[in-house]
# Entry
Amino acid sequence: MRSLLRLLLLFLALPAAVASEALPAPRPNLVYMICDDLGYGDVHGLNPERGKIPTPNVDRLAAQGLTFTDAHGGSSVCTPTRYGIQTGRYAWRTRLQSGVLDGSAPPLIAEGRLTVGELLRRNGYRTAAIGKWHLGYRYDRAAGAAPEKGDDTAEAATGKAGIPVGTRVLGGPVTRGFDAFFGFHHAREMRALVENDRVVEDLEPVDMLPRLTQRAVAWIGERAPEAKAGKPFFLYLAFNSPHTPIVPAPAWKGRSGLGDYGDFVMQTDAAAGEVLKALDAAGLAESTLVFFASDNGCSPAAKVASLERQGHYPSARFRGYKSDIWEGGHRIPFVVRWPGVVRPGASCHQLVCLTDLMATCADLVGAKLPDDAGEDSVSLLPLLKGEDRPVREAVVHHSIAGRFSIRQGGWKLERCPGSGGWGEPGDAEALKQGLPDVQLYDLAKDDGEQTNVQSEHPDVVERLAALLEKIVEDGRSTPGAPQKNDVAVDVRKADGKGGGKKAVKQKAGKPAKP
# Structure
């Protein structure tokens, strides 16, 4: 009787809104593979006519699973999208109103905010984050670490802003829902390899992708006995590639015939293949739900003009690249494999966003999210099970300069005159050219965003603008009690000064270069 009472008290001690209501049996293991700056058109299966880089492993994953053709990062740059993946909330609700975090920034995920790692851990999962974090943590300088170096130094720009081995990490992934962490903060501090909460090695950037892959493969093997015994795992694997520094390993140099970027994409595809092989070898492929995606579009640092001259279009048919409000900035490859549930070789054309992974995981384990968690997350489980219907009312997009866009159905309203990012024309230049201060595209007819029809459909502009304002004011875009944003949010930003690198600085830290 006392044992039963003790179990009851332990159950009641969990936050009621995240305790499992009816755990599906069996619960799948979960693997996220998130690439860094991999364009929609970099996956050959998504871009067969205008893509020249072989990606056999991701193509095979798509043949075994479901490909989303209208999937988006929460932003056109790194940190905001990763915040949404972890929390199910748009990052523009936080202090990060533009750009990304640098090494001096405190954690963007507030202490106590529910993350997907914590959600799953409370529901019986072993959790690990391997790879790039880029959500803010600090080094314990009092413990003897060297002073921070400026982001504009040549050393930092090549990913060599070294931090002494032994330095303690404050506010890292192990404080935000993960049992274990093995990786680095962001590209400018890539040499500082961290395990759990300590810098353990000064690593050359060219060695990072192989090291992350090796650790992921080993971790899956280590977890296999537990997983087979009924304790599933969640692996958040965030590759450093093909982001700068673009450093394919010697064995991959020259493989693509398109230069270092093409070689690095091929190496990234091979890394994904190694993880899939590890699941096969451990006998876990049939019981594991795999998500493969990118955080945003391909970076201009990939020398896209040269790639396009050679016949490879990293954004496929879409306009723009990383940083931009246009589709190429945030439309991403997104493939899901779940044997026995997801129909092999299927495609889904419904509008989805990576913020939706939080609600999807909650749905998988039978948990109900509280009102103050996953405010912008919608479960994709119906789509994974084969339904073909809209699951979200709209998606809000955000550019590096903090420009807003909202997508509903085929309509896309952009609250800026230009790219909102590094693309041409930038917003200031677009205004000089006399372009309207908003853009409206009918993506059903014009997914290349070539014809602005805002003057022809003022009613659509007004309706979408009002919906965007409501989503901001409500503090959420999903049903539930209204919430507060962390800061005041200005969706208009009608000063015409966006779209350039000088326009994207914010209090949380200088934005990183592409």
Observations:
- The longest helix spans residues 260-281.
